Amino acid sequence: MRKYILSYLMISISLTLLLTACWDQRLLRDHSLILAIGYDREKPDKILKTVSFPAPESQSNDVQGQGNASSTSEIVSTIGNTVKDAEKKLDNTIPEKFDRSKTRLVIFGEELAKEGIFSTLDSIYRDLRGPINAYTAIFTGTAQEALSIQADESILTSDMYAELIDSAEHSGIIKNYTISQTRPLMLAQGMDLVLPLLSLDKNDKPQIVGTALFQGDKMTGTLDTKETIIFLMLADKVTENLAINLQVSEEHEEPDKNFVNIDIRSIKRKLNVETKGNQVKANVEVDLTVEIDEYAEDHLDNKKRSDSLEKKIQQKLEKIAEQTIQKLQEAGNDSLAIGEKVRAYHHSTWQDLDWEETYKDMEIESSFKVDITHHGIIN
Amino acid sequence: MNSKTNITTFQLGFLLIHAQIGVGILSMPHDIFKMAEEDSWITILLTGMFIQIFILLYGALQNRFPNKNLFEIARTLLGKKIGNIVTVLFSMAYISFAINVLARYVYLLNAWMMPHTPKWALLGVMCFTVFIIAKKNLQIIARFSIIASVVFTGFVISALFSMKDANFSFLLPVGANGVMPIIKGVQATTYSYFGYEFFLLFSPFIQPANKGIVRAATIANIFVTGFYFILVVVTIMYFTKKELLMIPEPVLFLIKSISFKIIERPDLFFTSMWIVLVATTLMITLYAVILGFRTVMTKAKINYIAIAVIALIFLGTLPINDMFKIKAFTTFNDQYLRIVIWALPIILLLISFIFNKKEVVKDK
User: Fold this and answer.
1) What is the nearest CA distance from A133 to chain B, expressed in angstroms?
2) Which residue of B has its CA nearest to A187?
3) Given an 8 Å threshold on Cβ–Cβ distance, is B121 in contact with A340?
4) Which domains are present in chain B?
5) pLDDT tens, A102-125?
6) How far apart are CA A145 and CA A164, in angstroms?
7) pTM, whole model, 2 decimals?
8) Which fold does the domain A225-379 belong to in CATH?
9) Which are the contacts of B224, defined by CB distance < 8 A and separation ≥ 6?
């Protein structure tokens, strides 16, 4: 028995020594971590890939001194036939190898987004180390432009963008999707993808300008920021409390008094889909409980005035909603998931329909119900 | 019979669960979905019931020969020579099963975890581990199975964790494609269930003898069905139709999409856990093979049999190194196992009924 134990021990020790040769080791010192990637269409049929990574000096700084975050980003762009081809050329530009597994953000230029993004993302889905939890966004110009901005205040370009869209989602202005979440939306028949739309303002600072609407994997339209908020309500995608500023009258001379700012406390959405023959009708009902946090007109303790304000807000919201839905339909973007509902609950109708066609001309109604429960600490 | 090697019915239950759940769980939802689409979950439940019929039939056979394992029953009913042939057929079936499990295991590890590690290294480590435990007694394997069952909770919890991104409506409409796809799905699913028949081989080891064996097998079957059911339902709700047809290992993909603050790639953890499940399946299978060869060659030493078998499995796995070969081999293996595992015990049961042969229980 003893002999056996000894021989096992010998075998296992020698195996451990032999087998820890690590065919699959990847050392950090051999790699440069890409933190943001931009993809553009380089005319006529090439891919322009831009990567942003922390500059080598700042990397060594991070190792030595803590908190000395004078990080700057460097960017490199290459052109290739496909994403991987461009990537291969990237590796020739610096001594280390690029590692994209820690990417936080993937930005698409508008041009490329209009032609479709699924084949661009293929290599990320296929890669076992692909950054499928990175956020995605669309940039109105080229992604190269977006990543080339000089970020000051000692923050990496990638972090700046990531935090920008992250905080925007927290305040309910947009909805972010990671790469892994985009795939089902691009492939599903009765659902569609929307992505945050970024742009640069006059001072070359990045800002969110709305939402890019997709049909399948192609970008087909946009919404501005106000429409986006309404859209998020309609699509039941509001994750946090959000505030919205509305013009409720035009009669006051003081411009401030024409506006009201409401803070949404709770939101309930109901999507009803009816089918009659091959006619599909959808009705979206949104119930809002709101707090008024700015209204220069005052006198909200009066029930009548409060009710009439509720009504005005409702009308205003419905008007924007109508406009939003029209834009969605024009873009062929069914991100309210009406199609999914038809597929699941009215399957026989669904099989007879060409959904893309039907969706464009179908009737979608929206109605809002607003209930003011709080108005700050003054009347 | 040495009391050290006996197992309880409780341990038997775990042995059966681990024999059934193995290499296939990561890809099983994809394989079923190809056939049954949204109705895959019905397929799983149907398959569970289908398997239960076999468990009851095997139980009837086992009841007539309470102190004999399947190989001994075959020898009693068919005579020594044919009995030996049947035993060797059975053992070869399990060897090919082990080869298939290992081939899929190596392929998956190469794809998901260690793309540059050579196959022989991955295979060698697994074969060595399995060899060491399988040549011991059944009790040790059973205890190991019980400890290894922690892994199931990990899978279930992470599956439920991804429910936040799930779409309930992906399960609908129910039965839109009719009954045929569901039944075709059952055909594709039975392969993931093989292992329930092991209680025919292990029954002489069970103490107290002959009590609650079928019940343990039934409970194991219910557990396996439930486990598969959860995985299938969650993957259908998480992935769209086109994706599920595109992704061969949806369970791992599901886990890869969840990101925790501290753990970047949870799929690595789950691949490691899955390795344990593969190991238990292989151990139990190998033990059954050794049992078979020992019935035929009563004089040979366990160690030599074990070494020969594991070497055969190792060498047999090496050439099966790409997806198409694995697929072809799985199809072959599936057919072979069906003939051996379904047909043979039933034939034995029929013979035993027709000629009214029964084991004479001496005591009591």
Assistant:
1) 7
2) B242
3) no
4) 3-353 (1.20.1740.10)
5) 888 899 998 888 888 888 888 888
6) 17
7) 0.86
8) GMP Synthetase; Chain A, domain 3 (3.30.300)
9) B17, B20, B21, B48, B193
